Amino acid sequence: MDYVTMQKLCSLSATLPYWWILWFASIVTFGSAADARRLVDGDDVTLAKESCDLAIAIGVISFLLASFFILSHYEFLTCCGPCRTWMSYGGIFELTIIVFVDIWQVIATHTLTSAGKIGSTITGQGEGVAEDYVPGSNIYFAVWASLAASMSITVKWKQARAMKFAQTQNEVNEEERLGDDEEA
């Protein structure tokens, strides 16, 4: 009866579902890049190694930022007054960070999916010992999903801010009503 569904988990904010998509896509980016790095580790393939290292960094940073905002949506980060105000979802801090993530994801998508890079192909290209060898990976789809998710967060931010404002107003009205009942 009381099953936890993705709809229930993501209904707190308009941006939360997209933070989850960014979180999952970041894990795929990191995992695929780490696996590809392992495949080219013994070979003399400098271009593929640099591309893998960049994809690992992009995956880790995006994962950490998405994790932070997922936790803030569920109010796990309410340790102090400033944390509850400026680190909450729908705030200017979220907008500032997501604009940074948007820029980060545009650069990542451009860099990793360009010709000869790790995300340029799913099936791989070249031979295992050739200089132009690039292993196949899921990075192509993951970086595009990350870009789409980050852009969606930016677009939905205003709606999340309005939802947060309405929720705060309901809490204030409820406290005022309780205060009036106690006085009477």
From TrEMBL:
KW Transmembrane helix (keyword) present: yes
Alphabetic keyword roster: Membrane, Transmembrane, Transmembrane helix
The keyword Transmembrane is annotated on this UniProt entry: yes
Transmembrane segment boundaries: 12-34, 54-74, 86-107, 139-157
Record protein name field: Uncharacterized protein
Organism: Skeletonema marinoi
